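Example record

The entry below shows one chain as it appears in the dataset: sequence first, then structure tokens.
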Amino acid sequence: MRVIREGTVKYLAENFGLSASTTEVMFDTGLLREDVSRRVLILDEYHRRARSGKKTELKWELAEKYAVSPSTVEKILCKSE
């Protein structure tokens, strides 16, 4: 999924200083996988945007954006705590 790769490239560039080409090579060689990247992106975006009262809506929004079910988003969030 293109959204996941692009989001991962941006996340790794901002947080770890990795170039886009390095990240693409990591995907191509299997060092990065889209399922793991999806979890990281969901956790990062949830923690940046979560506000009391809007958390349920945010979970649904993230589920739609990353093409997973809301229960999957909930499981990802629960495993991170």
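Notes for this example: The first helix runs from residue 2 to 16. The chain has a mean pLDDT of 92.
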